[in-house]
Amino acid sequence: MNYLKIILAGGLLLLNVSQQRIAAEDEVPMSKPPLPNGKLVRELAPPEAWELTVRSTVSVLEPAPDGKSQMKKTRERISKAVFTQTEKMQHARISDEKGVYEFWSDGLDVIYKDASDQAKLGGSFSADEEEELDEAEAEAESGYTGLSSISEEVFSGMAENKFPFFRWIKPKHYIGVEQLFERDCLVFNSGNTRAWVDLANRQPVQWIKGKQKVLFQKVQTPQQMQFPTDVAAILESRKQDRAVILAPPKRGG
Predict the structure, then answer these.
(1) What is the per-residue pLDDT across 179-194, written as a single tens digit (0 to 9) for each?
(2) Are 151 and 112 within 8 A, CB to CB?
(3) What mean pLDDT do residues 62-82 have?
(4) pLDDT tens digit sequence for 147-177
(5) Element (H, E) at 219
(6) C-alpha–C-alpha distance, residues 181 and 92, integer Å
């Protein structure tokens, strides 16, 4: 009986080793053909709109079972950003569990609205908003990109007609071609940051840095877009201020 057990165990071990060898042979490593000609990532071509899904693993403190202390746990946090670029304006709607913000820009100034629906010049957050955004930024080390960071990246990209999170890519970062979501993608890597670009149309597919992941999806561009009245008023006031500042000094009395 003991001999039979040994033979059966030996047979199962050989079968398992053979299956592992076959599985390893079936794996297709990333290929590295020469980097194709053309732009590594195409530029934005207004009018067009994109949706970004930002997935982050964050560390949070929750009450411990004893009810007195706290314990650290990790969980996933999801943010959404839909940004639109036209010839005359830029717009983004960014949301997560902390709130929803809308942003507008004429290419020079950024105006935003929160739940209060009051238009404010970008950067002039209230004390409560500053505290909330600081908390979000404090979690960045554990993989969370807060609302302010996303908006900054989105508008910095649109200002250059480039996709957010993909402005750093250079030929030296190219590491190969890989299939992702059934699409052949150029893969670029720098440190702990990796990006996938559709080989056929050079559109962004996915960006990963540490515990953060951003997925890109093209969406339908709104037919008509215009600045809300209060946003337009602030932008016009800013334009007049710049005209006064940049006006040449008057000669004589």
Answers:
(1) 999 999 999 999 999 9
(2) yes
(3) 81
(4) 667 888 898 899 899 999 999 999 999 999 9
(5) strand 212-219
(6) 26
Residue 128: helix, strand or coil by DSSP?
Answer: helix
Contact between 97 and 88 (Cβ < 8 Å):
no
Which of 189, 218, 188 is closest to 52 using CA atoms? 218
The label of the residue with tokens 């409560």 reads 128
Q: Are 153 and 140 in contact (CB under 8 A)?
A: no
Q: How far apart are CA 238 and CA 151, in angstroms?
A: 20
Length of the chain: 253
Hey, what are 50's tokens? 């994109």
CA atoms in the 13 A half-sphere facing the CB of 118:
5
Distance CA 33, CA 172 (A): 14
Geometric angle at alpha carbon 15, from 14 and 19, rounded to 5°? 120
Least confident stretch, 25-34, 125-134, 208-217:
125-134
- Written as one letter, the residue type at 92 is A
**CA–CA distance, 104 with 84 (Å, rounded to integer):** 10
Helix (H) or strand (E) holding 22: helix 2-26
State pTM to two decimals: 0.73
Determine the angle formed by the axes of helices 147-159 and 127-138, rounding to 10 degrees: 90
Amino acid letter for position 145: T
